[in-house]
Design goal:
TIM Barrel; Rossmann fold; 3 domains; six-stranded mixed beta sheet; 20 helices; binds 1-deoxynojirimycin; Ig-like_fold; beta-glucosidase; Glyco_hydro_3_C_sf; Cellulose_Degrad_GH3; beta-glucosidase activity
Length: 758
């Protein structure tokens, strides 16, 4: 299957962009020379072809039935397509590559993109859930595994990681990202890029990654998908851009722009974002793919008159490849011919695309990802074990009154109740790539796998949640009136010593286009929970969901609550590991859980306002009908053991440019179980040229301690940590007083102050 492709004769005499600069490594110089050589051989039509990406949902080998598809196939044969998405399997990708390579004049290999968001076949926790592990090695490892499983099936480019900061639980896509914090998301961005791309993109076991969506998409007004984003430069640079900068610095191969407008300009048509910031100030050399049809969507945005106009705006703004939008196909050649678009812009885009293809080694062997031997060697069983390990680390214990959990060995009768208790599909979540439907281990199965046989486990569904056919594109049909299973569940609960209720969201309740005005337990779930509570109060509530939920009643009444997200293939086993105490939960929330949906957008790193509080009157920043702050704050998560923080010690109260000071704190495991704590470091700039958040995460460390054991945890503070996008529109630190805080979540912190001067 694997064939060596003879590289086309390259006119290596052409001098590339970097070739005069002796500081550039020769491997890079070589790539640049090769890119230019190929570019010199190309007609304008072929160059524009590289900038077009087609969806592959048509029969690539048989006769194409629809006219549109026939046209696509013809263009593929002429070498007028740069990439395809959603073409899967060794055979299908090879067929498409052959159509291109064996028929086209120019013979530039295609790359194959796909949404590999949290695993390819082996499914890991949804990204929001995985981030709750705060474990960068885990985040890197799941990406490495996803990369291997993808390339083994011919897919060599993933549209991941999604690193949009999102502060609104109503936004359905909050599940795809890492939550509300720029620092944590930046760390995840780097881990993911490393995991997907490894050290060398030409290694056939790695996959090209995409930092998306550039930019601001997660701050859609009202949490409504595709909605306008109205933020200024301060928020853009301090909140939205840091993870993208981190991904660019980590060498991510591609970026994807976004559907939203930002301050009135569609991101896809924003030269300031794409040309000035990303490709200018950051000097990033990869290519920008549009989001699906986002170039042509500038027409309904009211920003472009037609596809040709949209193409003109997008190419000038720096969008290099048109994902299934038809705008570049309709417009670019015409625009160059009419002199409206300079061909150097097209050359820049094509150079970027070719650069990635060269780095992937596709010119040496366009069939390198069509390797049946590699596929046969993928250790899927080992991947399952890793998926279980990462899943258990992602679970967050929210409440555990009277140590109801872990389940005591004396408990001999457990009732497992709820629509998600034996659901093998929901844990697979949305954006499931090739994760098989109904393939997850359910909670019921997981418990049966781990509980000794002398314990009786009964199961009642109680109510259904989503009913009928479910899919990525279809609206979800929630059960609002079928109560027929409730009485049996109540009977079951009556005779049990412990009830494990498994509630939450359907797999397709969060994700793209899945914004919700309500974020509580949908359908009849709350009613079921209350009915069970009437007869048995020993309830451990396990939540399976993709977004933060409004669970205030449960938090007030139910003794134990476990946030288990959509944990992927091994979900039930991982949950059982935690419920049984085989794993002591260590996850911490990457996002705030609200007391009511009306608090959204809700985030810990907010501004203080001029009226943060008042004991005497109502004229301060709050809602009169609810306590300020989150129900469960960012960074929060309990353990089966207790951790004690001693008073933090700072090495000096003065920090100067070029120097470092340290903050250290002694952490002790004062309980009787071994456990892991995520020690978090927050910072506040007390007075600055723009207002600054009341605190921002600046560091964290995972610390594993045996009972009675202590560890001194040390953080280094330098000028870099204090930098922000200032009123002078520079990334800089300003002189003055800072508060540095340390603790086990964003609210329970101890602080010390210091001064910084340049
Ligand atoms: C639209 C989504 O916004 C994007 O994230 C995804 O990668 C593309 N569709 C391709 O499926």
């Amino acid at each position: 299957m694997k064939k060596l492709f003879l590289i086309m004769s390259l006119s290596l005499g052409t001098v590339g962009l970097y070739s005069q600069n002796s500081k550039i490594p020769s491997s890079v110089k070589n790539v640049e020379a090769k890119v230019d050589s190929v570019l010199n051989l190309m007609t304008l039509e072929e160059k524009v072809g590289q900038m077009i990406q087609y969806n592959g949902s048509w029969d690539l080998t048989g006769p194409a039935s629809e006219t549109g598809n026939k046209q696509k196939e013809d263009r593929l044969k002429k070498g007028l397509v740069g990439s395809m998405l959603n073409v899967l399997s060794v055979e299908a990708t090879e067929k498409a590559q052959r159509l291109n390579m064996e028929n086209s004049r120019i013979k530039i290999p295609l790359i194959f993109g796909y949404d590999v968001i949290h695993g390819y076949k082996t499914i890991f926790p949804v990204p929001l859930g995985e981030t709750a592990s705060w474990d960068m090695e885990a985040a890197e490892e799941s990406a490495r595994i996803a990369a291997l499983e993808s390339v083994a099936e011919g897919v060599n480019w993933t549209f991941s990681p999604m690193i949009d900061i999102s502060r609104d639980a109503r936004w359905g896509r909050i599940m795809e990202g890492s939550g509300e914090d720029p620092y944590l998301t930046s760390r995840i961005a780097v881990a993911k890029v490393k995991g997907y791309q490894g050290d060398d993109l030409s290694d056939p076991r790695t996959i090209a990654a995409t930092a998306k969506h550039f930019a601001g998409y997660g701050l859609a007004e009202g949490g409504k998908d595709y909605n306008a984003v109205n933020i200024g430069k301060n928020e853009l640079h301090n909140v939205v851009l840091p993870p993208f900068k981190a991904a660019a610095d980590a060498g991510v191969a591609t970026f994807m722009n976004s559907f939203n407008t930002i301050d009135g300009i569609p991101a896809t048509g924003s030269a300031s974002l794409q040309r000035d910031i990303l490709k200018g100030a950051w000097d990033w050399t990869g290519f920008m793919v549009s989001d699906w049809g986002s170039i042509a969507e500038m027409i309904p945005h009211g920003f472009a008159t037609d596809k040709v106009h949209a193409a003109e705006i997008a190419v000038k703004a720096g969008s290099d490849m048109d994902m299934e939008g038809g705008a570049y196909e309709a417009g670019l050649e015409k625009l160059v011919a009419e002199g409206k678009v300079d061909e150097t812009l097209i050359d820049d885009a094509v150079r970027r695309i070719l650069r990635v293809k060269f780095k992937m080694g596709l010119f040496e062997d366009p069939y390198k990802y069509n390797d049946a031997e590699l596929l046969a060697s993928v250790p899927y069983e080992d991947h399952k074990a890793t998926a279980r390990d990462i899943a258990k680390k992602s679970i967050v214990l929210l409440k555990n009154e009277n140590d109801l959990l872990p389940i005591k060995s004396s408990v001999k009768k457990i009732a497992v109740i709820g629509p998600l208790a034996n659901d093998k599909d929901t844990p697979i979540g949305n954006w499931r790539a090739q994760g098989e439907a109904n393939s997850a281990v359910s909670v019921l199965e997981g418990l049966k796998n781990t509980v000794d046989t002398s314990t009786e486990i009964t199961y009642s569904k109680g109510v259904t949640l989503g009913q009928g056919e479910r899919s990525f594109l279809m609206p979800l049909n929630i059960n609002k009136d079928d109560r027929s299973g409730i009485s049996e569940a109540v009977e079951n609960a009556k005779s049990a010593e412990l009830v494990i209720m498994v509630l939450g969201e359907d797999a397709f309740q969060s994700g793209e286009g899945r914004s919700q005005a309500n974020i509580g337990l949908a359908g009849l779930q709350k009613e079921l929970l209350k009915e069970i509570y009437k007869v048995n109060k020993n309830i451990a509530l396990v939540l399976i969901n993709g977004r933060p939920m409004e669970i205030t009643w449960s938090a007030e009444n139910i003794p134990a609550i476990v946030e288990a997200w959509q944990l992927g293939s091994e979900s039930g086993n991982a949950i059982a590991d935690v419920l049984r105490g085989k794993y002591n939960p260590s996850g911490k929330l990457p996002v705030s859980f609200p007391r009511a949906v009306g608090q959204e957008p809700l985030y810990y790193n907010r501004k203080n306002t001029g009226r943060p509080s008042s004991a005497e009157h109502v004229t301060y920043s709050h809602y009169t009908d609810i306590t300020n702050g989150a129900l469960y704050p960012f960074g929060f998560g309990l353990s089966y053991t207790d951790f004690e923080y001693a008073k933090p010690v700072i090495s000096s109260n003065e920090l100067k440019t070029g120097e470092e000071i340290t903050l250290s704190v002694k952490l002790t495991n004062s309980g009787d179980t071994a456990g892991k704590e995520v020690v978090q470091l927050y910072l506040r700039d007390m007075v600055a040229s723009t207002t600054r958040p009341i605190k921002e995460l600046k560091g964290f460390e995972l610390v594993q301690l045996e009972p009675g054991e202590s560890k001194e945890v040390e953080f280094t503070i330098d000028e870099n940590m204090l930098k922000f996008y200032s009123a002078s529109e520079k990334w800089e630190a300003e002189n003055g007083e800072f508060e540095i805080m340390v603790g086990g979540n964003s609210e329970d912190v101890q602080s010390v102050n210091f001064n910084f001067s340049k």
